[in-house]
Every structure is written in C-alpha cells, then in structure tokens.
Amino acid sequence: MRAQYLKQFKKNMKHIKKNSPELYRKLTSTGYDEKWNIHIHEADGKLNLLLDGKPLYEIDIKEHSIINVENFVNRFLQKSKTHVDVFINTTEYFRESLHFKLLKKVDSLSFDKKFYTFEEGKDSEKVIHLLVVYGVGFGYHIKELLKKIKVRNIILADLDIELIRPSLYTMDWEEVFKDTNVTIAYGRDEKVLAKNIIKELKTINEVYAGMYYEYPLYESRVFKQVMQNIRYEEDEVIRGWGFFEDEIISLEHTYQNIEKKPPFYVRKKKIDKDTPVFIVGSGPSLDKDIETIKKYRDDVVIFSCGTALKPLVKNGLIPDYEFILERLKPPYDALLKTLSKEELKKLSIITVNLAYPGIYDLGGDKYMVLRVGDAGSFIFDEDYYYLVNTSPTVTNLAFSFALNMGFRQIYLFGVDLGYKDETKHHSKYSVYYADKEFKKEKADIYREVEGNFGGYVKTDRIFDATKTSLERNIRLYPDAYVYNASDGAKIEGAIPLKSNEIKLDRKYIKEKVKEIIESNFDRNFFHDKKNMENLRKKRDEVGKYFSDFIKEYKKTFMKKSQNIDEVYEKMEELYRILAEDIYEKSYSLWTLIRGTVYYALTIALVASLRVPEGKNRVEYFDEIFNEIGLFLEKGFKKYLEIVQKS
To answer: Which string of DSSP letters, residue by residue, matches 364-423?
Structure first.
C-alpha cells in the first residue's frame, strides 16, 4: 500500500482516539479481516476493494460517487415539504389534551403570514440534521456530499466494519467531519444493521426520527431491506414516546388505586419452571382452540387477556386470572357487559397501577403489578419487581408476568397478532362483534408478516408492536419454552404447535399453583406507614424537579436566539437535558413530559421548512420554544391538581 494512505490512516486514528473515544473503540473492537484488501490499479492509481481477491466494485467508484452526490443534492434542494402529520387521533380525549393543542400550535405557526412564504417545489432548507449513509467504502461520496450540504449528524452504515475502515486510508476525517458529528453502525444482516442504526439515532437525538435523510452509495437489495426495517423500528421509537395526558392519567390513577390498598406484587417465591400456563388472547383462532383449553381447565392455570374473557365465558370457562392493562374506561365497561356483578365477585383480576380505578372497586380479588414505562410506576422504589415489555397490549402484560413469576412452559392461544381476513380479526364471541360500543367491521392493515404455521398474515401497527415486545421478552428468558398454538403471526423464539398436538402431564395441582402466585402479592404493603411515606416522598420529588426544570427552561430556552445555529444548539441541549439530566433525576418526570416535547420538536423541524431561512425561521423557532414553555407551565398546574387530590 502506498505510504500516503498509511499516513492518512494513522492521522485519522490519532484524531479519532483523542476526540471520539467511543468511535475509536468501535473501529478497533474487532480484528482486521484479511479477506478484505485495498487494491491500487497501477496504470491509473484508482482504488477498489477486494473480497477474497475479487473486485467489489465493478464501476469507477470515485466517478460514480460524484455523479450520485449531484443527483442526491438536486433532489434534496428541490424536494417540497407539505403539511406535516401531527400524529393525531380523532378521540375527544386526545383533541382536548394539552399535548394535541401544543402540536397543532407548532404546526399552524408555520402557516402564520408573518413567517409563511412557501413556494411549491422549492425548499430553502440547506441543513440535514441527520443523514444515514449506506455504504462507506473509500468515502468519496461523503467528502463530496459534505462540501455541498451542511450535515449536523451522520451515521456511516454498512454490513461489515471492513467496508467502513477503507475510508480511514483515503479521507481526512478531521477535515471532512469538522462541522459534523459522526458515528458508525454495522451489522451482519438487514435486521441487525437496522437495529444498530436505530440505536445510534437514539444516542444522537430521537427527535430526528421524524426527519432524517438516507443516502445509499449504490443500488442494493440489502440496503433497501435495511431502510424498510428502519421504517418499522423508527415508527416504534416515535410511538414509544407517549404523551403528557396519558402519563398524567397514569399518575392520577396510581394515586387513586394506592388508596384502595390492593395486594401488591413483590415476588417472594417463583413457580416451579416446569409448571405450564395458558395465556389466552381473543384472536380469531381462539375459537378452534377452546376445546383444548377446556380439556386442561382443571390442571393448568389460565390467564385471560382483556377481551378474551367474553369468548371464554361464552364457552363455559372462567379464567383463573383476568389481566387488564389500559388506563381508560373501556376494559371496565367490557367487564360489566361480560359478567354480572355477582359473577365478577368470583373473578380474580391482575392489573397495573395505572388501571381505571373502577376496576379495583369490582368484587373479587384485585392484584396490582408495576410495569416499566409509565409515570405512575416510577414513584415506587427501584427495588420492586417492575414488569418489562408489558405493552402495547394486555397480552404483553400477562406474558411478562408469567415469565417474571418463573413459568417456563407457556402456551399461547388466540394470540394471533394478525389475520388472513381483515373482517375476522378477533374471536367471533368477542365484544368486537357482539357489542355496538366496541364493534369493528374491518381491521387496519399495516404490513404482512410471516404466519405461525407458514404463509403470511396481515397485521396492524399495534399487533406488530405487540409481537416485537413478546419477542423481546422471549430473548430475555432463553430457558423458557413458549408454544404458540395461535394461527396468526409468527413470533420469533416461540415454537409453533397446533392445539391438538398439545400433550400435558397432569401432575401439577392447580390450586397449589394459584396459592404460590397469590403469595407473591403483599396484602399489607399499602397499610405500611413506611411504604406510604416513601411514596409521598417520591411524589413530592417529582413536583420539585418539575418546578426546577421550568425555571431552568425559562432562563435557557425562552430568550431570543441570535441565529439558526443557536436555535439548533438549543434544541439539542433541550434533548440532552431531558434524555440525561431529567432521566437521571426522575424517571417519573421524564416519562411525563418528554413525549410531548419530543413530538413538538419533531414537528417544528419539519414544519419550519415552510419558513424561509434567516430571521423568520429563527423567530419561528423562538415562538416554538415559548409555546413549549407555556405547555410546561400548564402541565405543572395540572400535576399539582392531581397531587392535591391524593
């Protein structure tokens, strides 16, 4: 190799080691693979990469890169940004929320005549906040691209780190990235690479999930699939933010439910790992599996997930435990439509701290568990047993509880998470067909996924996220055997097993299993003065941190910005304060406010493209910062109202 390339490599590594230790660690975390080599064509000095002695590029990669960059830049500068989706739904509850009102304000301000001079087809924005480059190689395209467009953050992505390293020999990283934050992502296949890119995106700034750009070095089936996978992952990132009203309800319900003093999950004794459990959802395939559930009703504990209760009851089955997750009233209404008040007295319910308080007023035993991810659960000390991956549906809650309790023989029925016919989306006995209030003619379609017993099924966003959450929990418990009898979506890590093939040893005494489950709930927890004092202390801490944050926000973010660079720096500082400082001080406050603020910043970035560069755009963002400040003040007032009632 020519000396100039080795010299450049050493210079780059010295610079990266000094200025970006984490990036240096990634670049040196694996040994050099000898199957990759840089080839210099003696006649003209052009470079190519060799894989096992064969050229990787069949084209002049330098010339190709320059042409490709020109095309990208032209498309980028001409791309028009139309009215942005403000992530709304149509329920009155949502439309009246502080969250929705802030997002509408952020979006509508960009149409204000004092800012709005948008011309169709022309986009004055010359800054990319996050660019993902697929294919790195010698980096010719990266160098050329950063000459023409300002890029604040860049992720260099490839399937193998050996395809990223060549740029260290041919490109001056210090010079090329002097105004750009750079990181890398690599993975052995499309799924792993997509997950690693999302991981880097979260590290940089989740807000950019709403408006990042992608640049592929060359046409590739692999890169296309990675981009598609990122769409699904990115959608999950944004959905996971939550929003203020959901979290304030979580706090309000948690405080109210604590006053009812239900048995509280502390997990003292695990179930024997060979003990089976049936987890029942209300997917359409449940109807054909009812007889199998009946066959083992006296031997196996049955967990019913939300609306699965009605199909079970219709077929003469009362589950051992009904699981409820949602914070709003519909699950309560569904219970009253399914069982009489006398029957409800015989029903044991396991639900979460944030559940609709009326649930805890129904007859029978009600048990409280904590779930990671809501503002109400985070007022409890960290040493209690939080359940993980419990959303977005109640099936996730029941599954997480079963694993946490020690069950390692888990059978899934009616957990379809997809459908072959969108008019047959739930059990025919479920409330979705029987009751006008819940009736749903057709299911939404988000995408197609592999079927549990082959072929493909259609799924919606919620079911797709449910599937992902179940798969995460399966990976957390590699010793668990999860048998999926549902004729719907394939769940990675679960074993497809048709219900008529299930053969169980009847050696377990069901009542003993239930005794162990219920012994893990402390009936005196909320009667203990020390526990209650700790909860009040945590509650008061949230209020103090909230008040302090508003003071800091006003001082830092509600003053006039001098230029657009200062605006972007303020946005990144706000993200850092939320993602690091507030996160460390108070999970509860972080969960309460971050979703709405993230959404507002995402929408502001996209909507600002309607506003011309310069003074107008700076003033637009300053108004956005002021609106976020007003939202925080109103939110704090709402928080105090909740606390005063508790």
So the answer is: S-EEEEEETTSTTGGGS-TTS-EE-S--SSHHHHHHHHHHHHT--EEEEES---SBSSTT
What pLDDT is stored for residue 114 in this prediction? Answer: 74
Alpha-carbon distance of 177 to 504, in angstroms, equals 62
Give the C-alpha separation, 307 to 427, whole Å: 9
Q: Give domain limits for the chain.
A: 3-78+130-204, 264-522
Neighbouring residues of 101: CB distance < 8 A, sequence distance ≥ 6? none
Which CATH number applies to 264-522?
3.90.1480
The residues that bridge with 128 in the sheet, in sequence order, are: 151
pLDDT tens figures, 445-496: 888 999 999 999 999 988 999 999 999 999 999 999 999 999 999 999 999 9
106-133 pLDDT, tens digit per residue, is 988 888 877 755 443 344 456 889 999 9
Handedness of CA 328, 336, 334, 433 (dihedral sign): negative
Q: Phi and psi (nearest 5°) for 269?
A: -140, 130
**Whole-number Å distance between alpha carbons of 58 and 43:** 17
Q: Could you tell me the pTM of the whole model?
A: 0.85
CB atoms within 10 A of CB 345: 12
Return d(Cα 128, Cα 133) in angstroms, integer. 12
- To 10 degrees, the CA torsion angle through 549, 552, 558, 561? -130
Return the SS3 of 296: coil
Which residues, at least 6 apart from 587, have a Cβ–Cβ distance to it below 8 Å? 378
Peptide linkage before 392 cis (omega within 30 of 0): yes
CA dist., res. 474 & res. 491, Å (int): 9
